[in-house]
Design a protein that fits this description.
The protein is of the alpha/beta class. 46% of the residues lie in helices and 14% in strands. The protein binds adenosine monophosphate and zinc ion.
Length: 483
């Protein structure tokens, strides 16, 4: 049983997807605003979501994930104006960099990455705003912008657990900036303004652009349907962004939008949230430039429970490096053990495994324990504790000559499964155990003429940044876009 902490109820809840077959999971994750390079605080959120997806997949769920790209908002418009280039030209290199960074951190690609400026998405946003207006949940103000009327949505504030009495107070609130009925009302459609330059779309309410919140409601429902299983983001997204998403979507559909809301705590720097606005941030590229590898950063961002704040320090990066070196060394030793005995006695080494014997280990079923730790609201510290305890214990037994090739092989298989979730094995750019296993499975599928399976595995490899090609010498696996 998987239990997840739902921000909506503030309790741990058993995870059960909407799919009657209990298999498919619809997951939406708020993506980056592409006005600069994402910082590693943003990537903490994406690494947490990746861990969640990978664990659900290990547990047999089929995750369908959407991550949006916000390529129009105040910041992107300001950036393009300052750079003197059209909006799309300004955001393009940041989109490209974002996808490269995902690969560096071994974050699985979502099934789709819709962009807010895509005409299909803009169309959906306009349609939803129209519905909200019809239902009296929205109004056009004197400034020509369209706002959501929070007074008309009684559940507003339930996700954030805010007492919104103040925000709901009736009467026009004095504000120079807005012509809103209520200070808490948020923009669905922002009327065109001079500073927006060429950035505008036509709508029944005049030229303008969508508000940030409606982007996510539209992209999520367009691609995943009216109801989602899981919606994630950082805690700063809870209010107003996710609160607004609920109001807009449920205001249109009348159905519960999301079953489980998951939010990760911030990546901190000396007690403060890492943020662009505070200037205390590092991009992934900054950390890589200091000589750290993508998997070291991945490990450093992943190793603390997602709901606990994580302090970014260079000592923390060193610890990550040492931890990975330990894992590498252990896997190498086990590999050596397997080879050593296979060379001596090629036939007998695997006999035990062939007979289906369990490895005779002092550690009781670490696989179950590892997975059970993650079932418990992604208790990564517990899971890593089990991994390192296993490493310590097996190393001791290798030293004592107690581990033979078949047991070493069984441990490596265990590690291969663990690493499907952690994705930390192998030097950057090298073929990892996970990729090798996927390639092997694809070869088997082809031998069995199971083309569907083979294509699925090709997509799996592609999602991890690898390409499988079938040559006359058999299957070749290479970096996508590489040699
Ligand atoms: P943004 O581009 O600001 O919309 O942020 C993208 C994602 O990163 C959102 O899910 C944020 O909640 C998350 N995020 C931003 N700053 C941090 C941080 N310091 N630590 C963890 N997550 C963050
Ligand atoms: Zn969002």
């Amino acid at each position: 049983m998987i239990r997840l902490f739902n921000t909506y109820s503030r309790t741990l809840e058993e995870f059960r997807p909407l799919d009657p077959a209990g298999r498919e999971v619809k997951m939406y994750t708020c993506g980056p605003t592409v006005y600069s390079h994402a910082h590693i605080g943003n990537f903490r959120a994406y690494v947490f979501e990746d861990l969640l997806q990978r664990h659900l997949e290990l547990r047999g769920f089929k995750v369908r994930r959407v991550m949006n790209i916000t390529d129009v908002d105040d910041k992107t418009i300001r950036g393009s104006r300052e750079a003197g280039v059209p909006l799309a030209e300004f955001t393009a290199p940041f989109k490209k960099a974002f996808f490269e960074d995902l690969e560096t951190l071994r974050i699985k690609r979502a099934d789709s990455f819709p962009e807010a400026t895509d005409p299909r998405e803009i169309g959906k946003m306009i349609e939803m705003i129209g519905t909200l207006l019809e239902r009296g949940l929205a109004y056009q103000a004197e400034d020509k912008s369209v706002y959501f009327r929070i007074n008309k949505f009684p559940d507003y504030g339930k996700l954030a657990h805010f007492d919104l009495a103040e925000l709901r107070s009736t009467g026009r609130v004095q504000s120079d900036e807005y012509d809103k009925e209520n200070i808490g009302d948020f923009a669905l459609w922002k009327a065109w303004d001079e500073v927006d330059g060429a950035v505008k779309w036509e709508s029944p309410w005049g030229a303008g652009r969508p508000g940030w919140h409606i982007e996510c409601s539209a992209m999520a429902t367009q691609l995943l349907g009216e109801q989602l299983d899981i919606h994630c983001g950082g805690v700063d997204n809870i209010f107003p962004h996710h609160e607004a998403e609920i109001a807009q979507t449920e205001g249109c559909t009348g159905k519960q939008f999301v079953r489980y809301w998951l939010h990760c705590a911030h990546l901190m720097v000396e007690g403060q949230k890492m943020a662009k606005s505070l200037g205390n941030f590092y991009t992934l590229r900054d950390v890589i430039a200091k000589g750290y590898s993508g998997r070291e950063v991945r490990y450093a961002l992943m190793r603390v429970h997602y709901r606990a704040p994580l302090n970014f320090t260079w000592e923390g990066m060193e610890e990550a490096r040492q931890a990975l070196a330990r894992v590498d060394d252990w896997a190498r030793r086990l590999g050596g053990k397997v080879e050593e005995e296979e060379n001596v006695q090629p036939a007998s080494a695997l006999d035990g495994l062939r007979r289906g014997e369990r490895p005779t280990s002092n550690v009781q079923h670490p696989m179950e324990e590892f997975e059970a730790a993650l079932d418990d609201d992604l208790n990564i510290s517990g899971a890593l504790g089990i991994l390192f305890e296993t490493i310590r214990e097996t190393n001791r037994r290798i030293d004592a000559g107690e581990i033979d090739a078949s047991e070493a092989k069984a441990w490596l298989e265990w590690w291969e499964r663990v690493d499907r979730v952690l994705a930390i094995s192998g030097e950057d750019g090298a073929l990892t155990a996970e990729i090798l296993a996927l390639g092997e499975a694809r070869m088997q599928a082809r031998l069995a003429k199971d083309w569907r399976k083979s294509d699925e595995l090709r997509d799996e490899l592609a999602a991890r940044g690898w390409e499988a090609r079938d040559t006359k010498d058999g299957q070749k696996i290479t970096r996508r876009g590489g040699a």
